[in-house]
Amino acid sequence: MKNILDRNQNKADEVRNLLSSKKVLMVNIISSPGAGKTTLLERTCEELGSKFRIGIIEGDITTDRDAQRLKKYNIPIVVINTEGGCHLDSHSISKVLDSFDLDNLDVLFVENVGNLICPSQFDLGETFKLAVVSTTEGDDKPGKYPMLFREARAVLLNKIDLIPYTNFNFDSFSSDLKKINSQIPLFEISSTRGDGLKGWYDWIEDEINKMH
Ligand SMILES: Nc1nc2c(ncn2[C@@H]2O[C@H](COP(=O)(O)OP(=O)(O)OP(=O)(O)O)[C@@H](O)[C@H]2O)c(=O)[nH]1
Ligand SMILES: [Mg+2]
User: What is the distance in A from the centroid of ligand 2 to the CA of 129?
Assistant: First the structure.
């Protein structure tokens, strides 16, 4: 495991240096299956697609269904099928970077394979990891899967429109999160209804601008 992680880290450092020299922000989006990563990307492309040059890497075990959903935004998208692998690694990212015109890109969103555990362990060379968690998964995820919440630069709590239909306890969620990562920004959003997205757009816009 240590060898695998060391090899991954070396390549990740290479990817990070390359992207930083090209001033491209890379965001590694991690969540459980179905928490809303692709929906968030759809909304983000709609809102920021005319302001920034966006690229997307879609990591999935199989199928290009998420990429198909994003095709309508006319942005460069590359699919990586891991064929059973539960996470992306820096080697697979490095291989597909050639498909992007990095001189003409501001931000590269990577939708990692839906899984809270393995993707958190692998540095892809991203600028930062973004954790997406949804209210229907229960409020205990930061406490039970602390690594992602320790590593991430921000947390999006999605599907807040569904809170009335669940037993999600916001105070318990946010107090667990604060114990793990006291300073982390938390955005409460509904990617389908639109609640809270303005805060996310402003924040990510700032992060993209910081690269220049
Ligand atoms: N009610 C509600 N449903 C949502 C919200 N965001 C996403 N969904 C729904 O949740 C389901 C899963 O959303 P996706 O965006 O496909 O989730 P994902 O994280 O990309 O899923 P994987 O790629 O399979 O890991 C879809 O039916 C979405 O329409 C939300 O804020 N509120
Ligand atoms: Mg998806």
Answer: 16
Does this model's pTM top 0.85? yes
Q: Which atom of ligand 1 is nearest to the CA of 33?
A: 25
Cα atoms in the 13 Å half-sphere on the side-chain side of 129: 20
Rounded (10°) angle between helices 197-210 and 37-48: 70
Range of the domain at 127: 2-210
Q: Output the domain CATH number for residue 22.
A: 3.40.50.300
Tally of structural domains, the chain: 1
55-72, pLDDT tens digit by residue? Answer: 999 999 999 999 999 999
Ligand 1 lined by 159 (C-beta under 6 Å): yes
Element (H, E) at 178: helix 170-180
For residues 41 and 38, give the distance between their C-alpha atoms in angstroms, rounded to a whole number. Answer: 5
How many angstroms is it from 143 CA to the middle of ligand 2? Answer: 24
- Judge if the beta carbon of residue 32 lies within 6 A of ligand 1: no
- The rounded distance, in Å, linking the Cα atoms of 177 and 150 is 9
